[in-house]
Amino acid sequence: MGLFKKNPDPITDRSRELNAKISALELKIKKLSEELQPGPGPGARRAAQPRSAAVSAQPEVATPRNSEPIFEKVDQKQLKAPAAPPATAQHFNELGVRKYDLLSLLERIRKQFQSPPAANPKLVNYLAAGSIQGLRPLRYEKRVARNRCVALAILLLLAFLGIFYALEHRH
Fold first, then answer.
1. Is the CB of residue 32 less than 8 Å from the CB of residue 52?
2. Exposed, middle or buried: residue 62 (CB in 10 Å: 0-12, 13-18, 19+)?
3. pTM (2 decimals)?
4. What is the mean pLDDT of each run of 10 residues along the chain (171 residues)?
5. What's the CA gap between 67 and 61, in Å, rounded?
6. Of the candidates 84, 112, 114, the residue with the CA atom closest to the CA atom of residue 98
7. Taking the C-alpha atoms of 136, 138, 139 and 143 in order, what is their torsion angle to the nearest 10 degrees?
């Protein structure tokens, strides 16, 4: 009957295939770069290079001038937490205690019950409308799930009525 059968997800299957292809290509690139750059002797040590320089086609010769470490720039915006809004004098009373703000409390409570915004709203629209080939629209999936729930509730109600009827006529 297929009530509890999980529907196949073509997007997940496709992402697995693409990840496998990507890993195969990365392995192939690594092998080809090793063929281009014959490694030094077993006792030699490579200089620290950024990842992009290690993949380049031209090998670099380690010289005393080039033996200094190379530092890559790191995006600091991702590492730092967002700054809290500055506390102004309006937020504190004359004793220095923070004032009770009812509107901000209601806003925080409302945000707790809202789902976070979608990272890709266009994809959400495509999924809801069923515009991706091979996927059913979400409204259809919701309807199927709702019908299953209603059928299960009716089945449970009939079972309880049957048990109640059997207990009544038993005495």
1. no
2. middle
3. 0.27
4. 68 88 94 79 52 50 62 68 64 75 84 82 74 72 92 97 92 68
5. 10
6. 84
7. 80
